[in-house]
Specification:
The chain is α/β, with parallel strands linked by helices. It is 40% helix and 17% strand. The chain binds adenosine-5'-diphosphate and magnesium ion.
Length: 738
């Protein structure tokens, strides 16, 4: 009746248009991201209370002392503070038509006393116990249902044994009376007034093929489901929506890159590449050869390449990238390799130079902090085209860097860069003066990404995987030691050095700005140098050093002069020194799983047996035994338990994919490097860890749809198009040009 006045456009109206929301509530809601009527209806419950499972108070006697967790419901008949601090307690009497029960609170009694009102209806859950002939629930979990009174809208339906939504709230929201109950009321009124104006945005055939609930029913049922069966269908449909829109974005982006932008068709029969392969001291693995074939096909094609090369640390990605770059060079183009840190860029530069020593290829390094004269020279070379391969950091995408003819781009450790940087480097290849086109792009990552996540983070890329290690490798032995065993570790270090090997000792410096950490690392270095290994040559490496200093230390380590390199996490990626056979990680409990895996990957690169020693504080042993006996919500213990899980994982496996899965599980997908900055929409319902099936379906449907209608121009896709634009407003600006 009311909805006749509204149209679909009204969903974009400020949330104040919903009955029961004034300017004050509207402000607080807006601060929580709920700005429009649509936002409010899309504010989904985080959980539900199943009133059909509620037991009558009179029946609770049967559950007494049974250790069973039960839920009951009633109105508040009385409440009273008994005794004095510190033994004071609050006793609340809850009753229904069959009897009464006591709820007893020992903690936060003042808070609970204020929280209740006489006559209010609440549901409580807990274990029923007996005390002096009374039966009671101590500190039950509470769901507030209605405040009582005749005209209370909430109480309708409560007695029918339905499913009641629970909404997340916050202190600010509670200040304007938007606790669970308040939310129920405004969302109910938004649904009543506006649900009819929603239009189905999914194409009819897609909806039918998958037997999805129509949007109106799905939205109504996610808030007020008539059964758990329909609730799960509503959740399924709405999760699909979230993932489908995300995949549609990726599909459209990929389609536009492929079809609109002409790319370069390289002649892949390259003499230079042939020459390099023949000169290698090793045979490429089967996996490397396959990947090279995939890349060659892309390079030959006229469509621009956008390919992700995944391969665990040490699997030999660099040589693959170099071969592809040589093809570009042979075709008269420049190739660029962008790395996330200066150390890594320099390392790559030296590696490539070394591979190319007998070949007529000019290679240059461009990083920040080079002297201005040198820098001018390099920029000039890039601009004139006399440099053919250019290795660098972010410096490569600065405005004053102008390539003559950039045909091939390699981005290493992509997860450290955003989509924007990938796009920026690609655009360096477009040169209207000489008609240069879109360069081919190869993105490399050593951080194994669980499949569900790579489908979203890199969902617009084709994927190649190197899934075998070069044959000459021995598996690294990983050992966990506590701080009190550190002397033994140092003895082991000494043995390695006497055997002709080299050792890394790493200290945590997770955030470069952590002064304390830097101090700890340098102090430990001094101590190691003067007291423990005073007879050996040590070096120190951290991110605050100038590139010249870093360079000197790295060269001395590479040439074997420095035996033990004490470092912070700057060495995490890319460093390649096969003679280093031991990695000692101090305070290993502070590192993330991906970091530990990367650090360990710095050893095991030569023929010798390699070791990774993790050193953690003594508490790990205590917590390990405690963890078994004590399920806890104490934050500190939870964090410690997670740390132990990380250390155990690293000890138990070298499989990067397995490690990544556990990492995702421990951290949650939002935190898992970079998803937040990736420009993809945030997910409210769908969970990348558990909804892999829905994701796969969404991806298939989205890519199929874009195949048929690459610009969403068909009239039957009109509702989808406007829904998509509405939902993508924020993400699109981030991804423009992508
Ligand atoms: P990542 O994939 O971590 O970048 P690299 O490309 O740095 O690995 O390779 C690690 C080491 O293995 C390098 O020293 C490289 O020269 C060497 N390497 C690469 N491919 C092979 C192979 N097929 N057989 C033996 N050694 C190889
Ligand atoms: Mg590498």
């Amino acid at each position: 009746m009311k909805s006749q006045h509204h149209t679909i456009k009204d969903l974009a109206m400020p949330v104040q248009y919903v009955k029961g929301i004034g300017p004050k509530r509207a402000n607080v809601l807006a601060e929580h991201g709920i700005k429009t009527v649509r936002d409010l209806i899309y504010y989904f419950p985080y959980d539900y209370l199943d009133l059909s499972k509620v037991e009558k108070v009179g029946n609770l006697l049967a559950s007494m002392d049974s250790d069973r967790w039960i839920t009951t419901m009633g109105t508040i008949r009385s409440f009273e503070l008994i005794g004095r601090q510190p033994r004071q307690r609050l006793v609340v009497v809850l009753g229904d038509e069959t009897g009464t029960i006591q709820l007893v609170f020992f903690q936060s009694v003042q808070y609970f006393k204020k929280a209740f009102t006489l006559g209010e209806t609440i549901a409580v859950s807990g274990k029923v116990t007996s005390f002096k002939n009374c039966f009671q629930i101590v500190h039950p979990s509470i769901d507030r249902l209605s405040s009582g009174g005749e005209d209370d809208e909430d109480s309708q339906g409560l007695h029918t044994g339905g499913i009641v939504p629970k909404y997340g709230s916050s202190a600010e929201l509670r200040d304007v009376n938007l606790h669970v109950k308040g939310f129920r009321r405004i969302i109910k009124s938004a649904l009543d007034d506006f649900i009819d104006v929603f239009e189905e945005h999914l194409p009819k055939n897609l909806l039918e093929r998958n037997k999805f609930l129509p949007i109106k029913l799905a939205l109504r049922s996610i808030h007020y489901p008539e059964s758990f069966e329909i609730l799960s269908k509503a959740q399924h449909r709405l999760k699909f929506d979230e993932l489908f829109i995300m995949q549609l974005l990726l599909a459209l982006r990929r389609k536009s890159v492929k079809s609109e932008m002409p790319g370069i068709s390289f002649n892949v029969k390259s003499m230079l590449a042939r020459q390099l392969v023949d000169s290698l001291p090793f045979k490429l693995t089967k996996s490397q050869v396959n990947v090279i074939k995939e890349i060659a096909e892309d390079m030959e094609s006229r469509k621009p390449m956008n390919r992700l090369l995944q391969g665990d640390v040490g699997s030999g990605k660099t040589i693959v990238a170099l071969l592809a770059m040589l093809v570009a060079v042979d075709n008269g183009y420049q190739a660029a390799l962008m790395a996330p840190t200066e150390i890594l860029a320099e390392q790559h530069y030296k590696t490539l130079k070394n591979f190319l020593q007998d070949m007529p290829v000019n290679i240059r390094l461009l990083i920040g902090g080079q002297r201005s004269k040198l820098r001018r020279e390099i920029l000039e070379d890039i601009n004139q085209g006399s440099s053919q391969i250019i290795v660098g950091t972010h410096a490569l995408i600065q405005e004053n860097v102008k390539f003559t003819k950039l045909g091939f781009v390699v981005i290493d450790e992509q997860h450290r860069f955003g989509v924007a940087q990938r796009v920026a480097l690609r655009e360096k290849g477009i040169n209207l003066q000489n008609g240069s086109l879109n360069p081919d792009i190869l993105v490399m990552t050593a951080t194994p990404i669980p499949r569900t996540l790579s489908l979203t983070l890199y969902g617009d890329l084709d994927v190649s995987v190197i899934n075998e290690m070069p044959l000459n490798r021995k598996p690294i032995k990983t050992i966990l030691r506590t701080s009190s065993q550190v002397d033994k570790v140092y003895t082991f270090v000494r043995e390695q050095v006497h055997g002709g090997r080299q050792v890394y000792i790493v200290y945590p410096l997770i955030d470069e700005s952590e002064k304390m950490d830097l101090k700890a690392a340098t102090e430990s270095y001094e101590k190691l140098k003067t007291e423990i290994f005073s007879d050996l040559k040590l070096g120190l490496l951290h991110g605050r050093m100038s590139s010249i200093e870093k360079d000197e230390v790295m060269s001395a380590f590479k040439s074997g002069v420095i035996k033990i390199l004490v470092a912070t996490t700057v060495i995490e990626v890319g460093i390649d020194i096969p003679n280093a056979s031991m990695m000692v990680i101090e305070h290993a409990e502070r590192f993330g799983l991906a970091q530990l895996h990367q650090l360990r990957g710095r050893v095991g690169r030569g023929a010798a047996q390699s070791y990774c020693i993790l050193i953690a504080p003594d508490w790990i042993e205590k917590i390990v035994s405690k963890a078994i006996t004590l399920p806890t919500i104490d934050d500190d213990i939870v964090e410690k338990q997670k740390a132990i899980r990380r250390l155990q994982t690293i000890v138990e496996t070298v499989d990067g994919f397995k490690i990544a899965e556990i990492d995702l599980e421990l951290r949650g997908p939002g935190d898992f490097f970079g998803t937040r900055q990736s420009g993809l929409p945030q997910l409210q319902l769908a969970n990348l860890m558990t909804d892999g099936d829905i994701l796969a379906l969404a991806r298939q449907e989205a890519f199929q749809l874009v195949e048929i209608d690459p610009y969403l121009r068909l009239s039957e896709h009109e509702p989808l198009r406007s829904y998509y634009e509405e939902r993508m407003k924020e993400s699109l600006t981030l991804l423009q040009g992508g």
